[in-house]
Design a protein that fits this description.
24% strand, 9-stranded mixed β-sheet, alpha/beta, GMP Synthetase, Chain A, domain 3
Length: 532
């Protein structure tokens, strides 16, 4: 008899094999796998008592914490669909997503009550709102809070409810760069097989202690909720990303692995406190979310004395598709090794990844010819929630078209060049914003940067660099242009460089180029290049 593949199997395994091992550390609270599992069973029974059925969408609005981690199992265990919400969204965003998803129940933290309160009257499908912390005082909040409510339920194992591994387990809304956010449907099978491939790629083991630096509502955050549980490792929750807190938890909890997006890595590397904390427990820092400069890999390995790897994936692919795994026969050292580690990487087992031209043919594996990344895998989403046209646009003949442009070399390593929408077409030449950003980041006085396309009367469009200098340094537009001229072809040199004190960021700290383009439009009163 075939057993449905579901990430719930990972929890059952760890409870059986590691019942008394610490599963979760959250502030001053610690839960063994046995205790964690009992809380999850209580949660599942609470949800059923509130009318949750298989297929019901249950939304959470919470920062990282043990209650959000419990939902990844307690909601899914009932056959319901778990929808974690991005805490950085606006009230209007929440109104749209909750209505579009047809969520019937929302569990949220007290700090988000004002935002939901703004639109509560415009959420006709939302039956109940349950408070995860604090005291329920408002009339539209369930009168019993989360902790009291789950303690009133039995901790006995919840009856298995998953019959179909291809049923939707989790729903994640994309950021919606050009239109309304799209709900990505991930199945039990997607999530189970994705976790196994990540365990293989990152060599996860029972001794791992994962610090959840990235919000669990984000693609780069939720994957570890399954892979670490799969091996019986320990989850350490981080509510806010603050470098000193990260360093304290690494030292105090013996953290072995953590994930970062580049802006988080920049903050951590610029912390003056690194020498004051032990971090010899660390074995791996994994980077994702956007392209990584080789210089960042070098700096992280020098600062923390551990391996640094990079990877690539999307919400639609559960998310990880590739990791920059080393090949022993290459025997690369120094700068060559850092360049290799910063690449988009090799496809993981169970995934087929190609780079194709506009005719659907594989591009030459020469590390230079650019094409679009397409993937065929059991980790590719079921589709977009209630958007069959959008689903058909990206899922063609069994292949998921990512919209990301890359090269592939003779060893099979992919290297992201840019998103289709971020490529700058200057006088007929394609210019990669990522290539310029990597060049600028290597400048010792640059803290962070972003490059966007702006209208150009002569060339159609040209690159504009937005740069945040390191504190205490003196940078100028002309100095940075001259630096780029020494490193880049003439047509790739930014036509203008603007120095800023900060760059707009999303929920994980990823730089938001859409906001930068909108800012340029407001300040200049001109249209952004077509298709942007």
């Amino acid at each position: 008899m075939n057993v449905p593949l579901t990430p719930l199997m990972f929890l059952r395994r760890s409870v059986k094999l590691h019942p008394d091992k610490t599963a979760v550390v959250c502030g001053d609270r610690r839960f063994s796998y046995r205790q964690f599992s009992r809380r999850i069973h209580r949660l599942s029974r609470l949800l059923v008592s509130l009318g949750v059925k298989p297929g019901t969408v249950v939304a959470y609005l919470s920062r990282n914490g043990h209650r959000l981690l419990e939902a990844y199992y307690g909601v899914v265990q009932t056959g319901a669909i778990f929808l974690p919400l991005n805490v950085r969204l606006t009230a209007e965003d929440f109104r749209y997503i909750l209505n579009h998803s047809e969520a019937r129940l929302l569990l949220l933290e007290e700090e988000f009550l004002p935002l939901i309160g703004e639109v509560r009257g415009e959420l006709p499908r939302l039956d109940r709102v349950l408070l995860l912390d604090g005291e329920p005082r408002l009339s539209w909040i369930h009168p019993i809070g989360y902790e009291q409510a789950i303690q009133e339920r039995s901790p006995d194992p919840f009856p298995e409810a998953i019959q179909e591994e291809d049923s939707v387990a989790e729903l994640f809304y994309t950021s919606g760069t050009t239109a309304r956010p799209k709900g990505v449907m991930l199945t039990h099978r997607n999530l189970y097989l994705h976790a196994l491939s990540v365990v293989f790629a990152l060599h996860n083991r029972e001794t791992d202690v994962q610090l959840h630096t990235i919000p669990l509502f984000h693609a780069n955050g939720w994957g570890a909720t399954h892979s670490i549980t799969c091996v019986g490792g320990t989850h350490v929750m981080l509510r806010h990303f603050r470098p000193r807190t990260v360093l304290e938890l690494i030292r105090n909890e013996g953290v072995t692995t953590l994930n970062l997006v580049p802006t988080m890595a920049t903050l951590l590397l610029n912390s003056q406190a690194i020498p004051n904390y032990r971090h010899d427990s660390l074995r791996l820092i994994h980077l994702g979310g956007s392209s990584v400069p080789p210089e960042m890999v070098r700096q992280l390995e020098a600062a923390f004395g551990c391996e640094c790897s990079c990877g690539y994936g999307l919400t639609e692919t559960s998310p990880v598709l590739t990791v920059s795994l080393p090949k022993s026969h290459l025997r690369e050292d120094g700068e060559a090794r850092f360049r290799r580690a910063a690449m988009t990487g090799l496809e993981l087992p169970g995934s087929e990844v190609r780079v194709i031209d506009r005719h659907g043919r594989d591009v030459a594996a020469d590390g230079r010819t650019v094409g679009e990344i397409v993937a065929r895998s059991n980790v590719v989403m079921k589709g977009y929630w209630k958007q069959p046209e959008e689903t058909a646009r990206v899922l063609k003949q069994g292949w998921f078209h990512t919209g990301d442009l890359a090269t592939v070399d003779s060893e099979g390593y992919l290297m992201i060049v840019d998103r289709k929408k971020d490529i700058i077409v200057r006088g007929g030449e394609n210019v990669s914003s990522i290539e310029i950003e990597k060049t600028l980041f290597a400048h010792p006085d640059v803290l962070e940067c972003a490059v966007i396309a702006v209208p150009d009367p002569k060339w159609g469009e040209s690159p504009k660099a937005l740069v945040v200098p390191r504190e205490g340094t003196e940078l100028s537009e002309q100095a940075l242009k001259q630096y780029c001229r020494q490193k880049l072809a003439a047509y790739k040199v930014p036509s203008s460089v603007e120095l800023l004190t900060s760059l707009p960021k999303g929920g994980t700290g990823k730089i938001q180029k859409k906001a930068l383009r909108e800012r340029y439009l407001r300040n200049n009163g001109k249209g952004v290049p077509q298709g942007r």
